[in-house]
């Protein structure tokens, strides 16, 4: 995928998969409960696991599903193939729409702020492509999976011209060289053969899974709320035109705020989640710069099952600005393997 995602496991995914093991039964699935960019589910699928991807944010589900699509899943027969569909989107006339009005300098005509996420011409192209994808889907020209793929391509492609430091939490005051490029939709390299997967958008506490599943959980570690940091991607995923607010033009996001981003609530929430999920085996990614102390979490989870903590490796921390780059700080990435015993474990504390 074409943009930086806080907490992405791209650099350590191979190490995580080493601890996945084999399916315990024909009903076993790899359940990526907070799928993010979908890189871990992708590697699990390549390893032969049927996968279920889920996230509270629809943009994460869409980009994760796009990783799992094959050429057979997205033939674009009505448009003459995948490449022809991309070419048609790149050739349509620009349109003054929502992105132009809210996220380009044109915003100063409609709001108290001049938002510089995209140059005006690029924003118009984004608006035109959004409208075309929505019409194709509404008219039955593209299938569900083709629709998902094109939305993921759009989310990935806009990063190449976005005037941001890394996420969409805010825009930069000065235009970067990248932001002055001409916007172009780019396609995705699809899988050569289909894999078995399901996709859903839901809160992790309502995630449907079974004792035979292996559930992988990669929660937020810090106060950064994904719903606000990736609000523009969520607008593309939702295909809506929300009422946005403030200097950065955030869509309403607080209803999607994660409890794991609050230091005083994170550990209690994690324990509740891990102990109430039906799956017998749960893999939890976490790092030493998170809200939750690893030793404390291990001690509490040990009351309900077997806990193994594996130090995977040190990686560079998220660096949103030049100061963070100069610090060159690193974090320790851990994988916690939580296995329930024969007893009926559970935690009913309110979070």
Automatic annotation (TrEMBL):
<dbReference type="GO" id="GO:0009007">
    <property type="term" value="F:site-specific DNA-methyltransferase (adenine-specific) activity"/>
</dbReference>
<dbReference type="GO" id="GO:0009307">
    <property type="term" value="P:DNA restriction-modification system"/>
</dbReference>
<dbReference type="GO" id="GO:0003676">
    <property type="term" value="F:nucleic acid binding"/>
</dbReference>
<dbReference type="InterPro" id="IPR002052">
    <property type="entry name" value="DNA_methylase_N6_adenine_CS"/>
</dbReference>
<protein>
    <recommendedName>
        <fullName>site-specific DNA-methyltransferase (adenine-specific)</fullName>
        <ecNumber>2.1.1.72</ecNumber>
    </recommendedName>
</protein>
<keyword id="KW-0489">Methyltransferase</keyword>
<dbReference type="GO" id="GO:0032259">
    <property type="term" value="P:methylation"/>
</dbReference>
<dbReference type="InterPro" id="IPR012327">
    <property type="entry name" value="MeTrfase_D12"/>
</dbReference>
<dbReference type="InterPro" id="IPR029063">
    <property type="entry name" value="SAM-dependent_MTases_sf"/>
</dbReference>
<keyword id="KW-0949">S-adenosyl-L-methionine</keyword>
<dbReference type="Pfam" id="PF02086">
    <property type="entry name" value="MethyltransfD12"/>
</dbReference>
<keyword id="KW-0808">Transferase</keyword>
């Amino acid at each position: 995928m074409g943009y930086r995602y806080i907490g992405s496991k791209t650099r350590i995914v191979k190490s995580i998969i080493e601890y996945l093991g084999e399916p315990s039964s024909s009903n076993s699935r790899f359940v990526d409960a907070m799928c993010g960019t979908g890189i871990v589910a992708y590697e699990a699928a390549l390893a032969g696991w049927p996968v279920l991807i889920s996230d509270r944010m629809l943009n994460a589900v869409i980009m994760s599903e796009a990783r799992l699509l094959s050429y057979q899943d997205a033939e674009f027969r009505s448009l003459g193939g995948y490449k022809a569909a991309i070419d048609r989107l790149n050739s349509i006339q620009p349109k003054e729409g929502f992105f132009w009005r809210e996220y380009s300098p044109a915003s100063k005509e409609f709001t108290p702020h001049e938002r510089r996420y995209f140059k005006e011409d690029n924003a118009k192209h984004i608006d035109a492509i959004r409208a075309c994808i929505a019409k194709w889907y509404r008219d039955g020209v593209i299938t569900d999976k083709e629709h998902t793929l094109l939305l993921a391509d759009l989310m990935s492609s806009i990063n190449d011209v976005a005037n941001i430091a890394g996420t969409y939490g805010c825009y930069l005051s000065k235009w970067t060289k990248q932001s002055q490029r001409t916007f172009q939709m780019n396609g995705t390299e699809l899988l050569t053969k289909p894999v078995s997967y399901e996709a859903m958008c839901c809160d992790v506490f309502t995630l449907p899974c079974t004792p035979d599943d292996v559930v992988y959980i990669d929660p937020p570690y810090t106060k950064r709320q994904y719903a606000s940091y990736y609000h523009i991607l969520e607008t593309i995923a939702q295909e809506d035109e929300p009422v946005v607010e403030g200097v950065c033009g955030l869509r309403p996001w607080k209803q999607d705020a994660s409890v794991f981003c609050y230091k005083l609530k994170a550990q209690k929430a994690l324990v509740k989640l891990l102990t109430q999920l039906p799956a017998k085996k749960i893999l939890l990614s976490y790092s030493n710069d998170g809200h939750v102390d690893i030793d404390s979490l291990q001690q509490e989870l040990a009351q309900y099952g077997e806990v193994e903590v594996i130090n995977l490796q040190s990686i560079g921390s998220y660096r949103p600005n030049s100061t963070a780059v100069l610090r060159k700080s690193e974090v320790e990435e851990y994988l916690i393997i939580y296995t329930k015993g024969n007893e009926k474990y559970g935690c009913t504390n309110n979070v």
